[in-house]
């Protein structure tokens, strides 16, 4: 988890999306997780994350990636 006050990483990872809530449209962050490997490369992207079960999903991906 990290902070991104100037939104540079959000823009770089293309996670700023148009959202509609209560009939109003705004730009917001799409909840997304990125698995970064030891070489600093994106190994897996988890778009539109739902909190329930996500930790287990990420742990499984880490285990799978560490096998390769």
How are the SSEs placed, and which strands pair?
Blueprint: H1 8-12, E1 16-21, E2 24-29, E3 33-36, E4 42-46, H2 54-67
Antiparallel strand pairs: 1-2, 3-4
Note down, in words, how this protein is organized.
It is a single chain. This protein is an alpha+beta fold. The chain has two domains: 1-29, no CATH class; 31-68. The chain is 28% helix and 31% strand. Strands 1-2 form a two-stranded antiparallel sheet. A two-stranded antiparallel ribbon has the order 3-4. It is globular and about 45 Å long. It starts with 7 loop residues before the first helix and ends with a helix. The relative contact order is 0.13.
Largest sheet data? 2 strands, antiparallel
Q: Which strand order spans the largest sheet, edge to edge or round the barrel?
A: 1-2
How do the helices and strands follow one another from N- to C-terminus?
HEEEEH
N- to C-terminal distance: 25 Å
Provide the number of structural domains: 2
How confident overall, as mean pLDDT? 91
Low-confidence spans: none
> Tally the helices: what do you get?
2
Computed Rg: 14 Å
Task: Give the helix level as a range of percent.
Answer: 25-40%
Strand content: 25-35%
Category from helices, strands and their pairing: alpha+beta
For the secondary structure, the number of strands is 4
């Amino acid at each position: 988890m990290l902070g991104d006050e100037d939104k540079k990483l959000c823009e770089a990872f293309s996670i700023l999306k148009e959202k509609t809530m209560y009939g109003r449209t705004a730009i917001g962050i799409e909840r997304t997780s990125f698995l970064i490997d030891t070489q600093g490369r994106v190994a897996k992207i988890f778009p539109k994350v739902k909190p329930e079960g996500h930790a287990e999903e990420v742990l499984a991906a880490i285990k799978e990636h560490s096998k390769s």
